[in-house]
Amino acid sequence: MSEHAFILYGSYQNPYLRLVRIADGLVFDVAAGLLAQAPAWADSALALGAKDAVINGWPVDLPENLPNGAYDLQLYDAAAPSQSDAMVAGWRLVMPHKLLVNPTEFPLDVFGRIRITGA
């Protein structure tokens, strides 16, 4: 059994995730298993399945073939993935480390990089 990337907690009904690579805006096409310019919305949805009652959350397993890089991890909550769904939350994901951060909690420079020195 592989280790989960993280566990999603919250009061969602039908959560799903999308992965957008920051460097070029390519979206991970889950169905095809690769990055694509404009995959069908449903093909880019990483379904989370049923909520685990024991841990009270959704264990998230990232695709094995997700290329290294920085991604925007977008959370949606809808019964069927659709382009009209409103994004509920978003995080920054750094692969291959599976490092997940909230970019709004860090001081960013004009290029979207985390500043490690004073303003």
Overall morphology? globular
Beta-strand residue fraction: 35-45%
Radius of gyration over alpha carbons? 15 Å
Distance between the termini: 44 Å
Binned, the helix content reads: under 10%
Low-confidence residue ranges: none
Biggest β-sheet, characterized?
5 strands, antiparallel
Tally of strands: 9
Give the helix/strand class: mainly beta
Average of the residue pLDDT scores: 86
List the secondary-structure elements in sequence, H or E: EEEEEEEEE
Helix count equals 0
Instruction: Output the strand order for the largest sheet.
Output: 5-2-7-8-9
Detailed description of the structure:
The chain has 119 residues and is mostly beta strands. It is built from no helices and nine strands. The strands form three sheets. The protein has a five-stranded antiparallel β-sheet with strand order 5-2-7-8-9, with no helix packed on it. The chain has a two-stranded antiparallel ribbon with strand order 1-6. It is globular. The protein starts with 5 loop residues before the first strand and ends in an 18-residue tail after the last strand. The mean pLDDT is 86.
Outline the secondary-structure elements.
Layout: E1 6-8, E2 15-21, E3 27-29, E4 34-36, E5 46-47, E6 58-60, E7 69-77, E8 87-95, E9 99-101
Antiparallel strand pairs: 1-6, 2-5, 2-7, 3-4, 7-8, 8-9
Keywords:
119 residues; mainly beta; five-stranded antiparallel β-sheet; two-stranded antiparallel sheet; 0% helix; 35% strand
